[in-house]
Amino acid sequence: MALLEINNLKMDFGKGADAARALDGLSLTIGAGETVCLVGESGCGKTVTALSIARLVPAPPAHYVGGEILLNGRNTLTMSARELQAIRGGVVSYVFQDPGASLNPVFRIGNQIKEALKPHRPARATDAEMIRLLKLVGISAPESRLKNYPFELSGGMQQRVMIAMALASEPRLLVADEPTTALDVTIQAQILDLLRDLKQRLGMAILLITHNLGIVGDMADRVAVMYAGQIVELSPAKELLRRPLHPYTQALMNSVPKLRGDVQRLSAIPGNVPRIGKFPPGCRFAPRCPVARPECSDKLPELIEVELGRWVRCPFWK
Amino acid sequence: METAAPQPNPVIEQPLSPWQLFWRRLKRRRIALAGGVILIGLYAVSLFAGFIAPYRYDRIDDRSFFHPPTPPRWQGFHLVMPRYEKGPGTFNYRAVLDDTKPVHFFVRGDKYKLFGLLPASIHLFGTGDPNYPVYLLGADQFGRDEFSRLLYGSQISLSIGVVGILLSFSMGMIMGGISGYFSGRTDMVIMRLCELIMSIPALYLIISLRAAFPPGMSSAKVYAMIVVILSFIGWASMARVIRGMALSFREQQFVLAARALGQTHLKIIVRHILPNTFSYVIVAATLSVPYYILGEVVLSFLGVGIQEPSASWGNMLTAAQNIEYLRNYPWLLAPGAAIFVTVLAFNFLGDGLRDAADAKSN
User: Are residues B137 and B86 in the same domain?
Assistant: First the structure.
């Protein structure tokens, strides 16, 4: 049994006539101890997918129409509020994009870590445990840091504190939603190293959301590429980077600046991700696709397994 | 130990906490500090009112109706009070300067209860002889000492503001927090309720509510009633502001992070959203205390508040309604001056707190 199994998840924002489909038949599994990257442009549903695992998307407006999210074999879509509170910060923990905004500005660090420990492991909400957690995420002089306010820490330190809080309950799955986007490049590398190191030591699975393909090669076992509320390519990381199959993945990789070779104009994908509820008919990427054919706009392609472990939502992947 | 040995472990300098920064900015505002000091003084005096007041608030002396203030005089190194005798005409008093009694400290006098609990009869000062009265601020139409009544009245008038604020602000914060955090239908219902309450003219509501209670209520009951009525009206505006702040804070990532850690809704409201509104709430509370003080004054002035013989600044001012009295016995306006000073002090302090809470002012 996989740790996380999302099957054919369909979610709308709004109800009835106003309903706009945000996730459309999304399926994804994460095994214990596995790192899966979710990549795609802004607005394609990465964050909503991640938040859905612990039902953190505000509902309303979110409205789950179909599918299931099995976490440890139990469907979170049918859980009561109490069960969800036990899951959140228990089995699955989150680290968000902007660490400065994720910490409550008016409380000391120690106070907030204690809050994270209390609901799940009340007996261990001690100073010693907090110091252990801060050491685990590589914060120097943890004893004195407990008394600091969030604004007194650098962005990298804040993100380390957030990770410490996420680790407080020894989660099986850590969902990191663009954990390094708000940090500068050197700190970014440190945080990613930390995540990789923690994963090895604690044996937890990581769902890493990013739009930075550079991170993917470093971190991921498998990669899911999302576009307009659907997964368009799912593949082991190394193979995807070496030979992307879906035109969207190829376009994404072409827009990464290259350091070697002829200096050319940086290529970008023309146009924007279609707005939720305004998806084009047929293949959703067709209007922006460099190799689109007339028939692409007729029918929505299926996600098919074209090689072992490689799934593509494009009939013309060859 | 002046030669600094290299420290093995450099001490990490603890930066100032938000409260320390707040205090630092407040200290620079002299007027606010003065307001604060005046208020501390007023509240300390009202706490020990029974001890400091030379007489009880309901002690009637039929020989000294409208007695003017009696300043103590120096006789050598002693403070003395002269005897007063009635002069010709009504309420005309003359000091008999060669018949005096020294003012003593810690004299035995009227019985009272310190803090409403401990029976005592020692007063801070007095002559100990009813023929040589000490009327620092004169006496009222029943011959009761204005100064003593002012002190006893301050217990009601000053505490009503604090109790009222505690009641209305806790109610307003909880309702506003719930309203803003859950939004949707909950928000709709609570906000319409607030608007309903705010649309009723407060004074009419108070008077009609007062009419619903029996007229001969004890002062303690009337006090509780006034506080409850004023807070019942006052929480709505607070709830509206807190709701607006909660609406913006609930979109903040730290609320999402708290939810992702499995915190309950109640805990998120109480521990994450409301603490972020404190800097506003403290300022608003300070600036709203006068509203309750003046509310009591208005009600008592209209005769629906604290009843005689209990003293409050409002019902003491009732005696000063008469223009005749005001011209002849201006000392009856003393509670007005007390109200003026208190309200002003609260406003100065509140202004200073507001500036200190705003990090951008400096």
Answer: yes
Chain A residues whose beta carbon lies within 8 Å of the beta carbon of residue B184: 60
List Cα–Cα distances, B233 to B173, B239, B286, B291, in angstroms: 14, 11, 17, 11
Identify the domain containing residue B217 by its residue range: 148-357
* Alpha carbons B293 and B342: distance in angstroms, whole number: 9
- Token code pair at residue B210: 């007062």
Indicate if B210 and B286 belong to the same structural domain.
Answer: yes
Do residues B66 and B138 lie in contact, with contact meaning Cβ atoms separated by under 8 Å? yes
pLDDT in tens, chain A (318 residues): 688 888 888 888 888 777 888 888 888 888 888 889 998 888 788 888 888 888 888 877 888 888 888 888 888 888 888 888 888 888 888 888 888 888 888 888 888 888 888 777 777 778 888 888 888 888 888 888 888 888 888 888 888 888 888 888 888 888 988 888 777 888 888 888 888 888 888 888 899 998 778 788 888 889 999 888 888 888 888 888 888 888 888 888 887 777 776 666 777 787 777 887 778 888 888 888 888 788 888 888 888 888 888 888 888 777
Please, are residues B315 and B305 in contact by the beta-carbon 8 Å criterion?
Answer: yes
B262/A97 touch (CB, cutoff 8 Å), yes or no? no
Fold of the domain spanning A1-91+172-256+267-273 = Rossmann fold (3.40.50)
Measured between CA atoms, how close is B10 to chain A, in angstroms? 10
Q: Residue B37: how many CB atoms within 10 A of its CB?
A: 12
Q: What's the whole-model pTM score?
A: 0.77
Instruction: Please indicate, yes or no, whether residues B139 and B219 belong to a single structural domain of this protein.
Output: no
Q: Kindly report the CA angle at B163 between B162 and B165, in degrees rounded to 5?
A: 65
Q: Which of A63, A87, A104 to mutate to test the interface with B (most CBs of B within 10 A)?
A: A104
The CA–CA distances, whole Å, from A314 to A72, A294, B269 equal: 31, 14, 47
The domain ranges of chain A are 1-91+172-256+267-273, 106-170
ipTM: 0.81
Interface contact B260-A89, CB threshold 8 A = yes
Q: Measure CB to CB from residue B12 to each of A115, A119, A141 and give the nearest one.
A: A141
Q: How many domains does chain B have?
A: 2
CB contact under 8 Å between A98 and B17, yes or no, is no
